[in-house]
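Anyone able to model this chain together with nicotinamide-adenine-dinucleotide?
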Amino acid sequence: MTKTITVFKGDGIGPEITDAVLKILNAAGADLEYEIFNVGAKEYEKNGKLIPDEAFTSFDKNKVLLKSPITTPVGKGFRSLNVTLRKKYDLYANIRPAKSNKAVKTPFENVDLIVFRENTEDLYVGVEEQIDENTVHATKIITRAASQRIIKDAFEYAVAHNRKKVTCVHKANILKMSDGLFLSIFYDIAKDYPQIQADDKIVDNTCMQLVMNPQQFDIMVMPNLYGDIVSDLTSGLIGGLGLLPSSNLGKDYAMFEAVHGSAPDIAGKHIANPTALLWSACMMLEYLGQNDVAGKIRKAVDEVLNEGKHLTPDLHGTATTEEYCEAIIAKL
Ligand code: NAD
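re: yes, here you go
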């Protein structure tokens, strides 16, 4: 049965890459219908709401959202819409796979790792308190329930996908209580998965190890802030943010988005790389059981990347977003 999904177009490069991705999904024969909404900073300026009520209603109903990046003001203004969505729909598991592609040359080869980022708590609860004019406190929350479910998901994924190892990333040497709790829960849960190797690394060491020997990592699980930072680093290992997709999964809802932001520096120039959003859409198709269509798109993308004739500038090519998109459609 045709599945109706909700689509948020977002800011900056959001509308360009959304159009490209929807075109490819249609050309590949995805069994989908779309309810498409403008959301984000522009929508806020126009209608006073970041997300129109109808857009929320649509996601409430369809339970699956393909989302483009949204601009968030730094240091002032509204709370990040991404954080709001993750919290409102309890999208607790942020899954960010980084896999080397032979066609994209970087100093790193054979990277194949997946970051499982806890998505609902840690410093991202956004609780800050002005103590006096020179002092601000920010609250970091780590709970047993939220830690257990993301860590369990990481191990379950490892089993289901024949992965060998799960690494817990933390700073429990300094944050002995909060990250200490996360780490102790990790080793408790690891006992239930004797077939999967479990180890842990402090986050700063992890960053160094990722650029020295990224092949040692397989599945990585970590609290929210480290997950945000480490996964941008892992995107660098495979050729940049234009290539890093993600899913945000909860019990009842699922949201799929590129890891990158709205890239205001290149918005409207028709040079944005839509691959991260396209691969996020493939994760969505797989989530919906449309594996054949996802496979077809992944194969076409690989062919275009391998040929190297129609690459966007972030991959050292000269193609526009639209030319890259047409090249993929031609392969389908
Ligand atoms: P960014 O990810 O938007 O851009 C970082 C760099 O990567 C820029 O040079 C940009 O041109 C490049 N880049 C990003 N995506 C690309 C793509 N698809 N193709 C080619 N190049 C690409 O990060 P930023 O500049 O720090 O953030 C811009 C805005 O996006 C901020 O308001 C931030 O809050 C927001 N943001 C939103 C999300 C989201 O909606 N999920 C995620 C991260 C940042």
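The CA atoms of residues 309 and 317 lie 7 Å apart.
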